[in-house]
Description:
Blueprint: H1 2-5, H2 19-26, H3 30-40, E1 46-47, E2 53-54, H4 57-71, H5 76-79, H6 84-105, H7 109-121, H8 125-139, H9 141-161, H10 167-187, E3 196-202, H11 208-220, E4 224-232, H12 234-244, E5 248-252, H13 259-272, E6 279-282, H14 286-290, E7 298-300, H15 304-316
Parallel strand pairs: 3-4, 3-5, 5-6, 6-7
Antiparallel strand pairs: 1-2
Helix pairs in contact: 3-15, 4-6, 7-8, 7-9, 8-9, 8-10, 9-10, 10-11, 11-15, 12-13
Amino acid sequence: MMQADLPVPHATQAAEHPISVVASRTGLSRDVIRIWERRYGAVAPSRSAGHQRLYTDADIWRLRLLAAATRHGRSISLVAGLSDDDLARLTAEDDIAHASMAHDSAPSVERVVAAARVPTAALDAHALDAQLRRVVAREGMGWFLDTFVPSFMRAVGDAWVAGELTIAEEHLASRVVKGLILETVRTAPMPAGAPRVLVATPAGDQHAVGAAMVAATATIEGWAVTYLGVDVPAADIVRAAASSGARIVALSAVYGGDPQRLVAELRAVREQLPASVPLVLGGAAAAGAAADVEGRGTIVCDNLAALRATLARAASTR
Length: 318
């Protein structure tokens, strides 16, 4: 339970903890602490005579509450303005809900995936959407993106290869999953001055779910997102990045078609982007293609955790 693990600090305390101690006690990186402080006003440390950040016990307590809230899938932009009491209540409720599910009725990811395949096989988009929304409400969007979606889409793909599902059912599953994920991007409030990331798939790649996952992850991390969708030519990606002021271009490369075309498209994006704008690549085809993409500033993220770390580093260099 949150209150048992995190004793409430004393009401009076001195600002005596450097950021290295805060990072150790909260499990947050220094970059994330600085971002939460600067962009969301999560805490307001004082400064030493040498201009070093100094934090109080209360600051550490608050950052641990915020870290717990975000681990449960809540957006930092939505919880940073809450009081400590509200944060403690919220995280305690989340802990109770997760502990109860783990003890009593929380199914394994395999069981959740198997349950979602039922309305998929029945081509019942409404039932599938309702079921996935319950999963998000119970487990959080973070778990949904990191754990459920990769497992579900892999199971659907395997079932299609095995002849257990038709292409129509595979397309329905992709459409419902993508729609639910992109709803996060459309509805999440963005703080003023949030850095912008442009998300798309390169020309020839029609796989939308991976790009949608990138867009939602960036949104949860506090980035403004320009989502172009699938099959976007290199010139259009570069033009949109310039006009939107994107600080990162993130492309999801999944398709297994013509690898030379993929490399050519990625090279064109990298060559035409300013050197200061990183090109972040993810997806099944990304790692192999990235080795042939010339120019610095190309980063491969093989999972969403790596993407989050990349976004945090980029945001900290503003």
